[in-house]
């Protein structure tokens, strides 16, 4: 595709200044304009470059960690650089999307993926281009996720992570875990230089969940690559919380009882009823989860409504729900990982069954947890995950740390390089996250503060009460966190709070840890009357990691 093809379109779009941009030394939207930055990426080899204009492309998109789903129509130069690490037999695609010069805001924004996918492609990047960013993402050498994915791509690492039974694809796991992230940044900056004739004024990276893990990996290992990083619900302890997440399903298998979703939801509702007001306000949000001592066994026998059928809460159901809330515990009482908080929806990931109309139910795991056990730990596609002994399960929780912590975890609390590079970092975590146990994120940030008592000068962490995984839930979502990050990086305006809004339009300020959002006044019946402020979180003095030897990072 040549310059002449892009130019008339740019003019038709009223993008006349593209000409001046190009005249200023920039390149055209064709492969010949770009070079693979081999001199900066030893150990790689280019497999090809494509570049062609995308015009008036319409897609649904949202920035990571927001519920701002919108339909956008964008035009940009679509650049793909494909490369390999010779000897590794990998093929990595980096996609750089370059708006026309006069639409470019001078900045780069990189996006992460989620689950087992390194990228969600256009689902995130289109909104970035619409705001004027040059954007980048990498597939890290395996298949991308997308809005259309039914779960196969994001919720299992199969087939790419297993080369043959017994052997994982170490190269692709390392690509995904870390090195593709730095390479992506170098490639994006080279493409920007070639196209616009200048480097980005500022570079940002944003991601949620698996993408939040990628964000934290960049902050920890590749300090100079991005000026501002937004890490939402980051999967920093991916190697542990993923296999540990299977615990409730494992307990289900042991009991031979598979609760219907309505029963699980009834336990969750009972916990919310019991603990909602512990934070001072009745709003269906458990904002002080550490105060919630609700025991599900205490409501066994109570009736609940299952789509019009009255049923009773069972003791087995209580044990299973408690497994999801407590997290795996070995017979000796050792904790394998944390559970989720009690206002999190358990039927999304932790406790899944399929039932007939008479509530004869069978297990129906999501894939997210069990596929880690099957492909990365047992390394056997035929492994019967519902038939593990407890001893096997805890052996796997040890094995996963040995084999994958260094490769995939992003839980090193030493952010001194990022600080020295002048970077700014915002992390936020929904307390009603139904996938990632909030205590893992909190424990990490406690360690950051322990290492550097001045960490808030560049890295702030915010709890979002009542917010689910990445977005969703009844709590207020900090949709503007990325803009606050930009202000922090570019204007030095540190976020004292993150401004968040719930689905009813109520605005809440999220507090920087170790502060927590605290009810001050107002009537819960009129949510607009509620006033909160930030006060020191009493639970913050409980250093979560101290209790658990496995937290020490090596
Ligand atoms: C790449 O390797 C060459 C030759 O060994 C070396 O001179 C150069 O400094 C290396 N570049 C980087 C970015 O590591
Ligand atoms: C792109 O959209 C603009 C604005 O709606 C329109 O003027 C232009 O003709 C479109 N270009 C193409 C190639 O469809
Ligand atoms: C961008 O280019 C890649 C590689 O050629 C292609 O697969 C993709 O469909 C293009 N994107 C759009 C929106 O056309
Ligand atoms: C390289 O990877 C491809 C799949 O991407 C596979 O089909 C092929 O067997 C691999 N080659 C070697 C030598 O491992
Ligand atoms: C999370 O940590 C707090 C201590 O701050 C503790 O009280 C609580 O039980 C933990 N929750 C889970 C689910 O592990
Ligand atoms: C039970 O739930 C059904 C719908 O799921 C509803 O129509 C019915 O009114 C409920 N019954 C009671 C007693 O709440
Ligand atoms: C479950 O495991 C036991 C031994 O650990 C084995 O004897 C049994 O056949 C397995 N059951 C299934 C259904 O695979
Ligand atoms: C797991 O590792 C811990 C710490 O190294 C050890 O104490 C424990 O016995 C191990 N558990 C199993 C099941 O191997
Ligand atoms: C920085 O501050 C100036 C002056 O208040 C304002 O115009 C500009 O929008 C701010 N930029 C950002 C990125 O916040
Ligand atoms: C928050 O509100 C409480 C209750 O009104 C008050 O005691 C406290 O001083 C306030 N704290 C701040 C930091 O404003």
Element layout with pairings:
Layout: H1 3-12, H2 18-23, E1 45-61, E2 70-84, E3 92-98, E4 107-111, H3 122-130, E5 134-138, H4 152-155, E6 162-164, E7 167-168, H5 170-196, E8 202-208, H6 210-221, E9 228-232, H7 238-244, H8 247-255, H9 261-275, E10 303-306, E11 309-312, H10 315-326, E12 353-355, E13 361-363, H11 370-377, H12 390-408, H13 416-420, E14 424-430, H14 438-451, E15 459-464, H15 481-491, E16 498-501, E17 507-510, E18 515-521, E19 531-536
Parallel strand pairs: 4-5, 4-8, 8-9, 9-14, 14-15
Antiparallel strand pairs: 1-2, 2-3, 3-5, 6-7, 10-11, 12-13, 16-17, 18-19
Helix pairs in contact: 5-6, 7-12, 8-10
Bound molecules: 2-acetamido-2-deoxy-beta-D-glucopyranose (10 copies).
InterPro entries: AB_hydrolase_fold, Tannase/feruloyl_esterase
Enzyme class: hydrolase
Family: Belongs to the tannase family.
Structural class by sheet pairing and helices: alpha/beta
The proportion of strand residues reads 15-25%
Molecules bound to protein: 2-acetamido-2-deoxy-beta-D-glucopyranose
Which value, in Å, is the CA radius of gyration? 24 Å
Biggest sheet layout:
9 strands, mixed
The tally of strands reads 19
Using the alpha-carbon principal axes, give the shape: globular
User: Separation of termini?
Assistant: 49 Å
Please list the strands of the largest sheet in the order they lie side by side. 1-2-3-5-4-8-9-14-15
Multimer state: single chain
Helix content: 25-40%
Counting DSSP H or I runs of 4 or more residues, the number of helices is 15
Poorly predicted regions are 1-25, 550-554
Overall pLDDT = 92
């Amino acid at each position: 595709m040549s310059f002449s093809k892009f130019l008339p379109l740019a003019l038709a779009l009223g993008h006349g200044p593209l000409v001046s941009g190009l005249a200023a030394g920039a390149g055209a939207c064709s492969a010949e304009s770009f070079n693979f930055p081999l001199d900066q990426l030893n150990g790689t080899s280019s497999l090809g470059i494509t570049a062609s204009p995308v015009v008036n492309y319409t897609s649904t998109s949202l920035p990571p960690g927001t519920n701002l789903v919108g339909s956008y129509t964008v035009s940009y130069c679509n650049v793909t650089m494909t490369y390999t690490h010779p000897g590794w037999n990998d093929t990595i695609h980096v996609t750089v999307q370059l708006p026309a010069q006069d639409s470019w805001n001078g900045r780069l924004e990189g996006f992460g993926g989620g689950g087992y996918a390194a990228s969600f492609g256009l689902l995130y990047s289109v909104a970035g281009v619409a705001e004027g960013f040059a954007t980048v993402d990498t597939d890290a050498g395996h298949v991308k996720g997308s809005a259309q994915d039914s779960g196969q791509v994001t919720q299992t690492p199969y087939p790419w992570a297993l080369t043959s039974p017994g052997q994982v694809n170490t190269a692709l796991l390392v690509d995904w875990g870390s090195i593709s992230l730095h390479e992506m940044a170098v490639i994006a900056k080279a493409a920007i230089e070639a196209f616009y004739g200048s480097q980005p004024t500022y570079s940002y990276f944003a991601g949620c969940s698996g993408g939040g893990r990628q964000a934290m990996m960049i902050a920890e290992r590749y300090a100079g690559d991005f000026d501002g990083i937004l890490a939402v619900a980051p999967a920093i302890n991916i190697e542990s919380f993923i296999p540990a997440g299977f615990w409730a399903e494992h307990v289900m298998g042991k009991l031979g009882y598979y609760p219907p979703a309505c029963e699980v939801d009834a336990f969750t509702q009972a916990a919310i009823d019991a603990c909602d007001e512990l934070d001072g306000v009745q709003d269906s949000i458990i904002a002080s989860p550490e105060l919630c001592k609700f025991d599900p066994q205490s409501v066994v026998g109570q009736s609940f409504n299952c789509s019009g059928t009255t049923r009773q809460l069972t003791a087995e159901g209580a044990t299973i729900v408690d497994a999801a809330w407590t997290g795996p515990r070995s017979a000796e009482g050792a904790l394998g990982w944390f559970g989720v908080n009690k206002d999190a929806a358990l039927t999304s990931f932790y406790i899944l069954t399929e039932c007939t109309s008479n509530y004869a139910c069978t297990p129906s795991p999501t894939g997210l947890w069990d596929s880690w056990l099957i492909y990365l730990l047992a390394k056997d596609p035929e492994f019967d995950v519902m038939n593990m002994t407890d001893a096997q399960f805890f052996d796997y929780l040890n094995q996963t740390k040995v084999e994958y912590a260094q490769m995939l975890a992003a839980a090193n609390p030493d952010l001194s390089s990022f600080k020295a590079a002048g970077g700014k970092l915002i992390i936020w975590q929904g307390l009603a996250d139904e996938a990632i146990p909030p205590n893992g994120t909190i424990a990490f940030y406690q360690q950051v503060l322990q290492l550097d008592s001045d960490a808030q000068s560049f890295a702030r962490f915010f709890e979002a009460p009542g917010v689910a995984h990445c977005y969703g839930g009844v709590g207020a979502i900090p949709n503007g966190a990325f803009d606050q990050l930009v202000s922090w990086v570019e204007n030095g305006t540190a976020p004292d709070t993150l401004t968040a809004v719930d689905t009813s339009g109520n605005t809440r300020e999220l507090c920087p840890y170790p502060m927590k959002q605290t009810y001050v006044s107002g009537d819960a019946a009129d949510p607009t009357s509620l006033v909160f402020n930030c006060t020191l979180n009493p639970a913050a003095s409980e250093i979560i990691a101290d209790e658990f030897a496995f937290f020490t990072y090596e």
